[in-house]
Amino acid sequence: MSRDVALKARVKYLFKRLTAFNPGRVWSFATQIAEEQGKWAPKIFVDMLIWAAFHDTAYIDYYEADFALLTRRERKTFMTSLIQHHLANALNNRTDVLQFENKLTFNRRFGEYLGREWMDLEDTDAEHFRAFAKRHPVIIAKMPVGREGKGVFRYDTAEISDWATFRAELIGKGQNLIEQPIVQHPYLAGYCAGTVNTTRVATFFDGTTVHVLMAAQKFGRGAVSDQFTWGGFFTMLDENGHSVGPGHTGKHKSRYETHPDSGASITEFQVPMWDQVMAIVDRAAREVATVPYIGWDVVVGPDAPLLIEGNWTPGLYETRVSATGIRTGSRARHQPVIEASRR
After folding, report:
1. Residue 268 and residue 258: Cα distance in Å, rounded?
2. Which of 18, 23, 105, 210 is found 20 to 30 A from 277 (Cα to Cα)?
């Protein structure tokens, strides 16, 4: 049994899973895995239950990390959502994480890292909104609290004439954070010009050193966000910001050696200005010492990287052996934060 999650947290998790246990959903996962991987569904079903009960592995983790294709030893090299959630809750101050949960609060706190103009519609009037849109005819409107890109919208304001009504409509929808669209580096635009393609970097600040625990590159398909909910996919990155193999969605059997729309190589991808990306997350990770475990979304602009947001639960990104052939996860790189949670 893993020691990476405290007993109290594990018991709480197991109780939650038992009360919400839906054998039909687990069987659905098992049959899908069996079909995709050529396995026997009943054996997968039982194995999923065992790994959920004793190895901190949610059913979706088992599926997305291709555990059916891995040995026990290989599985233990992967992070899981329960371990990650436990680390975030154990180490991040539950009050100070609000600086990251709310995008408006985040923008105010990390303004020097944003590299873009923004406004809160609640704090401005229709005339100032109109002036903002004159400078930036296409605007990005965000709900201050949201996940997976579901609260992000793009508007072309060329035809807007009644700015008071438009402002009221956006506020009514909860989309009161307005931002200037980001211009990404030409190299990134070559992959997908219609979406800002972001880099996720998970860090842990131990009070002295910022440890980089994981990095992944996300790619969009032309929508307002590069998240999976908008059709995006990702590839894991090595310590030099280079792709470790083909991309995948993490949600179903998939493999992208090239971008399906632009044809640009995923296996040869290299994050531009990687040293500067590392520098900006190192600086940002030291800003709120009481929230040391963060997943940063960074985009490289034409001249420098800038921050999109910070996630106090960093998000689970791991390779899939069915897509990449790589059979080792990132848990070993997470040892600094795992050890800190045990103190």
Report:
1. 9
2. 105
Q: Is the pTM of this model over 0.70?
A: yes
Closest to 184 (Cα-Cα) out of 220, 155, 229, 156:
220
CA distances from 321 to 63, 120, 245, 248, 255 (A): 11, 44, 10, 10, 10
DSSP 31-88: HHHHHHHT--HHHHHHHHHHHHHHS---HHHHHHTTGGGS-HHHHTTS--HHHHHHHH
pLDDT in tens, 47-84: 999 998 889 898 999 999 999 999 999 999 999 999 99
Q: How many residues in the chain? A: 343
For 177-220, the pLDDT digits (tens) are 999 999 999 999 999 999 999 999 999 999 999 999 999 999 99
At 284, list the tokens: 């940002």
Amino acid at 142: K
Q: What is the pLDDT of residue 17?
A: 63
Whose CA is closest to 297, among 239, 227, 230? Answer: 227
Bridge partners of residue 153, in order along the sequence:
141
State the sign of the Cα–Cα–Cα–Cα dihedral 132, 141, 112, 115.
negative
Tokens of 197: 């393609």
Contact 181, 136 (CB under 8 A): yes
Confidence of residue 13 (pLDDT cuts 50, 70, 90): low
Q: Which two tokens stand for residue 208?
A: 């002295």
CB atoms within 10 A of CB 156: 10
Furthest C-alpha separation in the chain: 64
- Three-state DSSP state, 335: helix
pLDDT at position 250, please?
Answer: 72
Contact 140, 133 (CB under 8 A): no
What is the predicted pLDDT for the residue at 230?
A: 76
Separation between Cα atoms, residue 324 and residue 322, nearest integer Å:
6
Packing angle, helices 23-37 and 41-54, rounded to 10: 120
